[in-house]
Amino acid sequence: MKKSEKKFIENFKKTWIYLKGAKGNLIWYIFISIVEATMSAIIPLIAAKIVLYIADGAMKQLLLTSFLVIIIDSISHASQYFKDEVFRKIHLKVFVSLQEAIARETLKLEISEIDKESSGFFINRLNNDTRNISGIF
């Protein structure tokens, strides 16, 4: 295994702990993404059938197939909504987990280190660093 691959696996293991309350949501996110991908693959195939029905003048099949496209597209939009909601929950849990970890590490600092900087500096770093790190997820 290359050095970069080992480093990636090591970093992945370190960051995985911040997903500790969001693993169930992550599974839902993956499942919904698979459903969305399936829907996205099916719609062009059905749309091609619609074109054939138009060319053949088969109105009944055209209407039924068009209705099917509307249903599949509606399911696709609903799954996008749920995927966004699940992602929001994952992001929030990771953000809180990161804030807790950074706050714990901040509390481990010596008083002399804290006295060197203003309290606003630490609060600002806590908020900004957490936001930046959680953006990775």
How does this model look, in words?
Helix 2 (23-56) packs antiparallel against helix 3 and helix 3 runs antiparallel to helix 5 (119-134). This protein is an all-alpha fold and 137 residues long. It is 87% helix and 0% strand. The chain has helices at 3-16, 23-56, 59-107, 111-116, 119-134. The model has no long low-confidence stretch (mean pLDDT 81). The longest helix has 49 residues, at 59-107.
List keywords for this structure.
137 residues
- The fraction of residues in strands falls at under 5%
- Report the count of strand segments: 0
What is the CA-based Rg, rounded? 24 Å
Mind describing the biggest β-sheet? none
N-to-C terminal Cα separation, in Å? 25 Å
What overall form do the CA principal axes indicate? elongated
Contiguous low-pLDDT stretches (5 residues minimum) are none
Q: How many distinct helices?
A: 5
As a percent range, the share of helical residues equals over 70%
Class from helix and strand fractions: mainly alpha
Report the mean per-residue pLDDT as an integer: 81
The ordered string of helix (H) and strand (E) elements is HHHHH
